[in-house]
Structures are given as C-alpha cells and as structure tokens.
Amino acid sequence: MNFRTLEELSNDAKKLIADYVSRIDDIKAKERTKIPAQEMPAQDPEVRKHNLEEVALGYTMEQARIEAMRCLQCVKKTCIDDCPVKIDIPRFINHIAHEEFQDAADVIKEASLLPAICGRVCPQETQCQSNCAVGKALKDVDKSVAIGRLERFIADWERSTGKIAVPEVKPETGKKVAVVGSGPAGLVVAADCRREGHHVTVFEAFHKLGGVLRYGIPEFRLPNDIIDKEIETLTAMGVEIKTNFVVGRTRKLLDLINKDGYHAVFVGTGAGLPLFMGIEGENLVGVFSANEYLTRANLMRAFEKGKADTPIYPSKNVAVLGGGNVAMDSARMAKRLGAENVYVVYRRTEKEMPARKEEVAHAKEEGIEFYFLQNAKRILGNEQGKVRAMECLRYELGEPDDSGRRRPVVIPNSEFTLDVDTVIVAIGNSSNPLISQTTPEIKVNKWGNILVDETQKTSSERIFAGGDIVLGAATVILAMGEGRRAAAAINKMLAEEIEKEKAGMN
Amino acid sequence: MSKILFKKQLSKDVFLMRLHAPLIAEERSAGQFIILQVNEDYGERIPLTIADADTKEGSITIIFQVVGKSTTLLSELNEGDDIPTLVGPLGRPTHIENFGTVVCVGGGIGVAPLHPIAQALKNAGNHVITIIGARTKDLIILEEEMKSIADEFILCTDDGSYGRKALVTQPLKEICERNPKPNMVIAIGPPIMMKFCSETTRPYEVFTQVSLNTIMVDGTGMCGGCRVNVGKEIKFVCVDGPEFDGHKVDFDNMMARLNSYKEIERAAHNCYLEAEIKAKEALR
Ligand SMILES: Cc1cc2nc3c(=O)[nH]c(=O)nc-3n(C[C@H](O)[C@H](O)[C@H](O)COP(=O)(O)OP(=O)(O)OC[C@H]3O[C@@H](n4cnc5c(N)ncnc54)[C@H](O)[C@@H]3O)c2cc1C
Ligand SMILES: Cc1cc2nc3c(=O)[nH]c(=O)nc-3n(C[C@H](O)[C@H](O)[C@H](O)COP(=O)(O)OP(=O)(O)OC[C@H]3O[C@@H](n4cnc5c(N)ncnc54)[C@H](O)[C@@H]3O)c2cc1C
Ligand code: SF4
Ligand code: FES
Question: Predicted confidence band at B282 (pLDDT cuts at 50, 70, 90)?
C-alpha cells in the first residue's frame, strides 16, 4: 500500500463530506457500505522510525464523520456484544456523524473511563470490530467500521477542548481504600471509589504512575501526556498518590488493613514477571526481556541519549522472539534506537499472531522483517560472553491445539543461524509473585494468578484483585473492566458498613 | 522523597549517608537493599545496601563508593538535600541463626553490607571471625565497627600498606584448614573476590554465602536484568537474592553481564566529569 499523507487523506475527506452531510439520514444501508473506509493518517515511516512521536495521527473531523456514516445502526448490535465494557457503540457513532461530539463523549464515558487509551491500544479487530455488519457485508474484517479510531477521535477532541470536567466527588465517607499498582486496573478503581467519597491512596512501586501504559507501551503508540492527563484528573479528585512504595516490602499488605486503617484493598499489580525460553545462551550479554528493554527505553528515558543516565545496549542486528504487542513494541523500539536490522522470529504464521493488526502493519512499513514458522534453538556467544548469533529451527503447522490454533511442529534438521548481537525475549509475562509471597493468606492458582469470585474478591477479607494479576497477561480493556467490577463491589461493601454503623448509632 | 540527614566521607571515594526513611527503617532486616534515583526524570535507579537503620530517628544508612556518574551525583548532594526516589527495603533478608562459627569476609566497599549481617550473627550467638581487606590502606572502611563485633579479627591489604599483606582468600584458607572447620562463610565484595572466596572454600565443603551486586532496573522482579545462573537455574537477584550459595553461582557470566554497559557508562561518566571541570573553570 502506498503511503498517503495526512494532507491527502484530509483533502479527500473534505471533498466527500458535503454530499453525505446533505442527506445524512437518508443514506441507504447499501450505499453506506460503499462509503470509502477512512485510512488512519500516520507519520511517514521513513521519518517515524527515527523518532518517538506518535505514529497514528488520528482522524480529521471530516474523516471521523465519514467513517461514522458507514455505520448501519444495526438492530442486532454485535459490536456492543463484543465490547468487553459494553460501550453503546452505534449511539456514540451516530453522534459523531451528526457532529455532536460532546454527546458522543458522554455516551462513551457511561461505560469506559479511559477512551483515549483504549481507542489506541484495544485489539478492536478481535473485539467490537470482529463481527461488525459492515465488515461482514464487505467480507473483510479490516473494512469494519473503525470503532477504535472513532473512540480515539472523540477522546482526543474532548481533551483538545480543555474542558474535561473533573468527576464529581460525593461527601467524604471516612472510609479508606488502598489501591496497589497504578496500571489501568488500579487507576479505574481509584476513580470509581473516590467518586463515592472514600479516601483513596494509590501505592505504586515505581517512581512514575501508569503501569504497563508507562513502562511497557512506547510513546509512539501511547504518548505520556495522555497518561499524565488521566492522573491529573485523579489528583484533582483528591486521590492520594504514593510512589516508590512496594506493597509487601515497604509495608505488608495486611498491615495496610490492620495497622494503617484501610477498609478495603485492591490489588492490581499486573503480570510483571518476564518469561524466558529456557534455552542455552539466554544469559549472555545482549539478551534482554522485553520488559527490561522497554523499561529502559520508556520509563528510564534511555531513548533520549545523552540526557538519560540509564544506558541501553547498542545494537546492530536484533532478533525479537514472540508475536504479540510486546514483540512489536520491542522490535519497533529497537529500530528507533538505531538497529539496522530487526527480525521478529515467531513460531507460527502471521495469521496466529496475537499482536494488533495495525501494529504489525506499522512494523512492516518501518522495515521490521518477519520470520514466521521459525524459533530460537539456542543463542551463541563470543569469547566475551556477548551474543554473536542465534541458532533457529524451522516449523510447520500441524494439528490444532487447545486454543484452536494449529500447533507448530519442528522440522527435523532445519537448523540455521541468524547473525545478531541482541536478542529480545517477548514471549510473555506471568504474574508478579511479590504479593503472594509476602501475603500467603491470598489464594493463587498454579500460575500465581490471584483467585477471585465474581465480584473480584479474593480469599481474604476486604481484599480485592483484578487485571493481569488475576487474568494473566491480558489487555488494557479487560484490566479496566475488572477494576470497575472490583470498585463496584468495594463501594457496595463500604456503603453497607456505613449503613450498619448508622443503624448501630441510633 | 527522602532528606539527607547526615553525610560523612569515609575514605577517598567512599561516603556514608543517613537518609530519612521511617517506613524502610521499620521494615528492613540485614541483607536488604534500597534503590534510589538522584533525578526522577532522567536518573538511573541504583541499588545500595542498607548498612544500618535507626527506627527512633526514622533513618537508614547507606555507604557507597563513587564508581560512575550516578554515584558521583549522589556524592555531591549534601545534608538537607532531598533524594527524589528512594524505594525499599528490597530483596530477601539474610537468614540468621546460630550456625556455630561463621567467617565474615568483606572486600572493599563490601564491608558496608557485611557489617549488619556480622552484627546480627553475633547477636544470634555465633562465633564470628572477620576478615576485611582492600587494595590499600586508604580503602579500608568500618575497621573499628567490625573489630568491635568480631571474636577474631583479621585485616589485610593487597599492597601490605596496612595489616597483613595478603588477599582475603589466604587467611580464609587457613581458617578452613582448622579443626573443626568453620560452619559457614559469608563473603561480600567485588565479584572477583567472591568468586575466589567460593573457590577457596569449595574443597573444604564449607557453605559459602555471597551477596551479588548485579545490574538492576526495577528491583521488584519485573525486568530480569539482574538474572544470574545459580546451579542449573536462572535466578533474579532482586527478588530471589541478593544472597546465594557461592559454590553454585556462575561468576564469569555474572561479571560479563555486569560489564554490559561498561563502555557507555565510562563515556557518560567522563563526559559528566569534563562538563563539571569546564563549569568550575568558567566560575574562576
Ligand atoms: C509492551 C506491552 C504492550 C502491550 N500492548 C497492549 C495493547 O496494545 N493493547 C492492550 O489492550 N494491551 C496491551 N498490553 C497489555 C496491557 O498493558 C496489560 O494487560 C495491562 O496494562 C494490565 O493492567 P494492570 O492494571 O492489571 O497491570 P499493569 O499495567 O501491569 O500495572 C501494574 C502496576 O503495579 C505496580 N506494582 C506491581 N507490584 C507492586 C507492589 N507490590 N506494590 C506497588 N505497586 C506494584 C507495577 O509497578 C505496575 O505499575 C501490553 C503489554 C505490554 C507489556
Ligand atoms: C543489591 C546491591 C547492593 C549494592 N550495595 C552497594 C553498596 O552498599 N555500596 C556501593 O557502593 N555499591 C553497592 N552496589 C553497587 C552499586 O549499585 C553500583 O556501584 C552503582 O549502581 C554504580 O552506579 P554509577 O552510575 O555510579 O556507575 P556506572 O557508571 O553505572 O558504573 C560504573 C562501573 O561500575 C560497575 N557497575 C555498574 N553497576 C554496578 C553494580 N550494580 N554493582 C557493581 N558494579 C557496578 C560497572 O562495571 C561500571 O563499569 C550494590 C549493588 C547491588 C545490586
Ligand atoms: S455492528 Fe458495525 S455497523 Fe452495526 S452498529 Fe455496530 S459498528 Fe455499526
Ligand atoms: S532488577 Fe529487574 S528483575 Fe531484578
């Protein structure tokens, strides 16, 4: 596909819009499916592979309205069914078509607290857009209504007005809620519990807030000011923030309840334990977990060479192992940090890759090379203990496994070597064991994920959990959804206690 | 944020600071460490052992050697200044019990983390033999403090400028040859010293515990940058350690990993020093 500039895309949309607007409510379904799907404007790949600026620039107003007019306003709303937080999608899209952006924003906010983030990072093609009637009619899921881009458009529009109201906070209840971890799950709990008038403290191990949104997902996909804005709103609501505070170490979890007087605790500590392959050579100099590589680049700002004190390994040829968003982010970051060749090595095919489609497309445009049906066998080092090459094996697809994906089977004697000086392992994360090690009262499963009931309550009184620490490495929107559910349960529990206390006093 | 309550220079490149950190002071045990940043936006997160704590004052003590840019910046802060990021206590506490006779071997700056451990072992009723060593006299720290808790005290320097002229491994070997041999050895210092202490005790089958000072980023088990080979397993020093069985640690790999950024860091440090010298000249 040829690269088209923002200006070109914008001009096309400007030409089209007048005609559609003139008969906005009379366009027949058949014709709607013929309205051209709007392409996301992006930075030129040749330019962006040297900077950290956001790649996707966002729709122009005309583009957003045209894209919104593609929606058929179905009776059977499969998009809502497939949205983890049940945003009323056709309703907000209809407002966009009619240039009623504030109304659109209000509809989204009924269900989602972080639209600027979700619009950017949700895997829409497997959620709301997967069964969209337009995509079905055109027999191409890529032609579904671009719900995520429209969500982002509205969130950005609202931010640009500078008029985002700080949510109202009810009178102080005197109840205290501790939120452990400031990823999307924790941020949502903090907002929802604070709104009810409870005193909320967010405890975060790092010196900055946001969890994976900050240290994992790079700025070229999710700029820091978007996260900062969400946090500003929380502080404006009166949420107390304690960074550099490792619950379990700086203070035991149960001490928060027993000594510090918190009435409820939410654990949203994420899936921060990097998995390695367990192959020979994995401890050589030049092998990194994606977490380490991305944390150095994002949180520690190593991208800003000369300014940041945290160093990043200088690489020429980089192999990234894995096929998810984490792998895409690592590969694209390595490119931006100056690597000449970056190879993504994945043992299945492109179809099975769990990464967002848009990220894969962007990575390809930036010159990342994909090696499908291949996997690392061992990593080879030189005399100084540094990576010099990686030995790989070729695979073919066999019978489907439990997940329904065809299992990759190794082809015997298919070894070959790839000359690389850096290997980034991005095969996933399991749950951070710090809380369970220091709080044996909380029950976990064999993978270390905290066990919860349908209200997100753990086996321990007053302790709730949600997000990746419960789900295993999942998604932002699922973490957010669990956060909302937990906050609702906490608010209910505290409301009942307040009722009881009142009754007791009379 | 944490205020520097007290600062003292112990030797040419070694400084002691007491930092206001009441929660850490309360929770910490011997063997644990903190991570700090001198600058929150661009600063490196550097791990330092908690050398001591005072719950009354609500303070912890760190003792550090200036080796690169971040430790230089830290050494330039003064009493009353704030350290923006201070997090801890991290790592697992040292397991303390009455083992019998324990040899505590400290090399260079390693004496700082060794001191609270030796103290705790002494309090638990152990017979504590202490060996401290450094390249030269000026680099010996905490001599009096270590002497006062030791049942036997040996001091050596590589160049013979003070105490016995020997590497710490020599007296260690002699002690291992005694009958009965010691029950345990704890060695803390530069990786190469810990490696050779472990090699020294291996033939005598004396359990030797070392405290690893790998490169770290988060210190909570999230990045894996601190990983080392221990026996057949990969361990994360920040959450599984920092103490490990020295006979199982792959020191060569650990040292190679420690040098991952050597050239870049040296360049950054030199660059910083040059800029400082220029700034000072400009003032003149
Ligand atoms: C590189 C990368 C790219 C991704 N891309 C996408 C994407 O495009 N789309 C998508 O939907 N999902 C993506 N994900 C997954 C998504 O980011 C996570 O599912 C989501 O962030 C989980 O949220 P959470 O709130 O459960 O935890 P996290 O975001 O992991 O936050 C947990 C927080 O808790 C803190 N913490 C941990 N232990 C303690 C403690 N003991 N005391 C105090 N604080 C503690 C951590 O420091 C962290 O800040 C990506 C993940 C990564 C790593
Ligand atoms: C658990 C733990 C406890 C520690 N306790 C202490 C302590 O009590 N006192 C103390 O002085 N130091 C201690 N260290 C070492 C200290 O963290 C490093 O000296 C410091 O990070 C160096 O930072 P820098 O920017 O000044 O030097 P850099 O410029 O980062 O490095 C300069 C040189 O020092 C070496 N180096 C880099 N990082 C480390 C490291 N983590 N350990 C050893 N050498 C390193 C490198 O080879 C490099 O060439 C500890 C380390 C760990 C992991
Ligand atoms: S399924 Fe697609 S066309 Fe139908 S309402 Fe949802 S977004 Fe619109
Ligand atoms: S320092 Fe990151 S895992 Fe140990």
Answer: low
Contact call for residues B50 and B90 (beta carbons, < 8 A): no
Q: Which of A266, A271, A275, A272 is nearest to A442 (CA)?
A: A266
Helix (H) or strand (E) holding A152: helix A147-161
Q: How far is the CA of A89 from the centre of ligand 1 (A)?
A: 26
More confident residue, A326 or B13: A326
Residue B235 corresponds to which amino acid?
A: K
Fold match between A6-160 and A176-272+430-505?
no
Which runs of E-coded beta strand occur in B66-111?
A: 82-83, 85-90, 101-107
C-alpha–C-alpha distance, residues A322 and A327, integer Å? 5
Give B203's pLDDT tier (boundaries 50, 70, 90). Answer: very high
Predicted interface score ipTM higher than 0.85: yes
Give the residue from B222, B228, B249, B263 with the most A CB atoms within 10 Å of its CB, the best one to mutate.
Answer: B222
- DSSP assignment of B49-77 equals E--EEETTTTEEEEEEE--SHHHHHHHT-
Query: Is residue A464 less than 8 Å (CB to CB) from chain B?
Result: no
Using CA atoms, how far apart are residues A318 and A420, in angstroms rounded to an integer?
Answer: 6
- CA dihedral (A421, A427, A430, A432) in degrees, to 10, reads 30
State the residue for tokens 């900062």.
A228
Cα A218 from Cα A472, distance rounded (Å): 21
CA distances from A94 to A38, A62, A66, A86, B52 (A): 16, 14, 11, 16, 64
Question: Would you say B244 and B210 are in contact if contact means Cβ atoms under 8 Å apart?
Answer: yes
Q: How far apart are CA A153 and CA A409, in angstroms?
A: 43
Backbone angles phi, psi at A312, to 5 degrees: -125, 145
- Give percent of chain B above pLDDT 90: 81
Residue ranges of chain A with per-residue pLDDT less than 50: none
pLDDT of residue A163: 79
**What CATH number matches the domain at A6-160, 3.20.170.30, 1.10.1060.10, 1.10.10.10, 1.20.120.450?**
1.10.1060.10
* Beta-carbon contacts of residue A482 (< 8 Å; ≥ 6 apart): A185, A456, A466, A467, A470, A471
User: Which ligand has an atom closest to residue B258 CA?
Assistant: 2
Tell me which chain B residues have a C-beta less than 8 angstroms from the C-beta of A291: 222-224
C-alpha A486/C-alpha A503 separation (Å) is: 26
Give me the residue spans of the domains in chain A. 6-160, 176-272+430-505, 276-427
Topology annotation, domain A276-427:
FAD/NAD(P)-binding domain (3.50.50)
Domains of chain B, CATH where assigned: 2-90 (2.40.30.10), 101-258 (3.40.50.80)
**Helical spans, DSSP H, in A207-324:** 212-215, 224-236, 253-258, 290-297
| CATH superfamily of domain region A176-272+430-505 | FAD/NAD(P)-binding domain (3.50.50.60)
B260/A314 CB distance under 8 A: no
Nearest to B241 by CA among B217, B266, B261, B214: B214
Question: What pTM, to 2 d.p., does this model score?
Answer: 0.91
| Other C-beta atoms lying within 10 Å of the C-beta of residue A140 | 11
Strand-pair category, B208-211 with B243-245: antiparallel
Contacts of B24 in chain A (CB under 8 A): 250
Contact A244 B87 (CB under 8 A): yes
Tokens standing for residue B283 = 């003032």
- The residue of chain B nearest to residue A435, with distances taken between CA atoms, is B220
- Tell me how long chain A is: 506
What does A314-369 look like in DSSP terms, one character per residue?
--SEEEEE--SHHHHHHHHHHHHTT-SEEEEEESS-GGG--S-HHHHHHHHHTT-E
| Continuous H helices in A49-146 | 61-69, 78-81, 89-97, 101-111, 115-121, 133-137
